[in-house]
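User: Fold this; tokens only.

Assistant: Input:
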Amino acid sequence: MTLVVGLGNIGEEYEQTRHNVGFMLIDLLIKDLELTKISNAKFKGELFKSSFALFLKPSTYMNLSGESVKAVAKYYKCDRIIIIHDDIDLNLGALKFKFGGSSGGHNGLKSIDSHCSNAYERVRIGVGKESDVITHVLGKFKEDEKEILSKVLEHAKKALLELLDSNIEHIASKYSLKAK
């Protein structure tokens, strides 16, 4: 079973922030796919199931995302994990794909690495970088950024749906985007 995880922070104050692009992509997928919501407190998140994959939005806050990922992956014996996350090392409008690697200082990835290892595929959505990184990633997208974000998320949705039946190298060569 494949587990697709969108990273973000729970709570109204974090909606539409750069750190929540993983949640945003999962929400797009939930709208388009026929999914069943699964309720189980031990999963520490919102979990949805299709005939071909599980879709998770951890409710542990970013820094503890690994707890939720581990609980679901262990329970369903997931043999493949795909993590969707914001990436400050990529400009807004960029989209990259990779397998494994370092967390790059991303606290959600650090948590997943410590609970599950770093042997997972990553969908990296660029959000850009400013000198005050925490304020930047926890900040909401500006009006002039929302159109770029919308296009990247739609593109990422297509890529992710194809990735479920493909491999990361093929998807990286076909769907990676450089920021304009």
